[in-house]
Amino acid sequence: MTPPAAPRANLLWATLIVEELVRSGVSFFCVAPGSRSTPLVAALAANEGADSLVHFDERGTAFAAVGHARATGLPAAWITTSGTAVANGLPAVVEAATDGMPVILLTADRPPELRQTGANQTIDQPDIFGDYVRWRFDLPAPDESLDPAMVLTTVDQAVYRARRSPSGPVHLNLMFREPFLPDPDEGPGDLPAPACWRRSGEPYTRYAATKAAVDPDEVERLWEKLQLVERGLVVAGRLPSRKQGEAALRLADALGWPLLPDVGSQIRLGAASKNLVPLYDALLASERFNGEHAPEAVLHLGGRAISKRLERFLAASRPDPYVVVRENPFRLDPGHRVTQSVEADIPAFCAALTVAAERRPPADATPWTAAWREASEQADRYLDRSFGEARALNEPLVARLVSRHVPEGHTLCVASSMPVRDLDTFAATDGAPVPVAANRGASGIDGTVATAAGFAHGSGRPLTLLIGDLALLHDLNSLAMLRDLPVVVVVLNNDGGAIFSFLPVARYKAFFEPYFGTPQGLSFEHASAMFGLGYEHPGTVTDFVEAYRAAHDRNGPTLIEVKTDREENAELHRRLLAEISEAGR
Description:
The protein is of the alpha/beta class and about 575 residues long. It has helices at about 5-25, 40-45, 60-70, 85, 90-100, 150-165, 195-200, 215-225, 240-255, 280-285, 285-290, 310-315, 345-355, 365-390, 395-405, 420-425, 450-460, 470-475, 510-515, 525-530, 540-555, 565-585; strands spanning about 30, 50-55, 75-80, 105-110, 135-140, 170-175, 230-235, 260, 295-300, 320-325, 340-345, 410-415, 435, 465-470, 485-495, 535, 560-565. Helix 1 packs parallel to helix 6, helix 9 runs parallel beside helix 13 and helix 15 (about 395-405) packs across helix 16.
């Protein structure tokens, strides 16, 4: 039987949970409606310090929490009801875990007497996310006889485990008995919480965490190796902030080495440096260039880079030393070539190694660095000439136009598959230095629109989302999250899975089109109207630029659809890269 005090205990515990999260800096809650999570929603609605995004799809709200974490570096909370609703969060949990995004997962559940009884909407929830969470805890059903400090310390541990390195998702599974709330006229009453906590306005338990420190001796040992290198490369992989990217720029300048910036490094767009090589991915399509530019040493900062060509190039070059610097203990070595892995705060590490490098007299740019830089500039000029003659739109050109015309102060979110690769390869070098977000932890296309919505909420800035047709269809209902946001969705509709046209399976004509090309024959005009977005369908470069600028001026959600041909797109990519290679001879 349900204890008579259960409704009051539910609300009291839920109130403690929400309030302690807010005190700990978790003030954004992504909520999908459901009955079992009623106590949490009631507590959330009553908390003036909390902000919420409410959406009808659990998968979408989970990805919105990931997007918010990308924008702020702080955890957002995800509230969901029990059963398959919880399972719908798994793709976002995988992405958050793989890319180190802090998220607090608050899943409502049945009490223990209903587990494994065949009770409706009851599944095995406590370990549902497996090892993808940094920490998990199955709270007992609320009971006023238990010390409320236990609730507070559990929340504090969850926030700490989400934020400490390696950051990521944590899971609190919360059992609630029916009835969920006391009568409306009863109210929650006084919180049975420690008096010192009620007075302070601070979290009950405060954790002090420090990032991995930089070992001066290790820096000196590394510098002894690097100062002898004549042909070195700095690779800036995915980095969460412009601050980290600029630290990498300063280090590359001090070393005098070329810097190869991934589009997620936050310095691929709008950065200026004498050693920056933005078009490196296009250059590495040339076997001749690769053979002439194999490095002796590589210093990789941050997460994995998008470019497969870079990965293959470095594996084939076998640089020694090959150093990876990350702010977590995870291995980043798919080619099994890394000779030294350093866990350290990246700006601090770059600063320490920059100081060591600056002890030697400044030198003019070496022929090695000048050759990389000149080749990148030549490729950039070629793309300007090639695209400057075009009237019709194509996918590499749209990526370049977006990178060139995205306004300063805005943000850019990019879908996996071809859009992020095209931006990485073809983005202009003279656009605004805007933050770039992409779900490249697990590199799935699911939840992209929801991630963009969360990122827009977290950053507080207007946002452009560059996305393919299948990724948009996969997350179509998340367009509902954009209705009140200044977001421009640029969708490249090539009627199917364009990326598969670049893979060996494309040669198998007998089954390629129905199983991989997957033509869907749909347009997004009616979907835009359904979800209240403005709609544009430009056919020329001039039309696109005008539509894109007008969409930003509208300060509301707009969808711009660009239709392309998959076969022509694959052939265009091959031609552009071949001509860049030929121009560099």
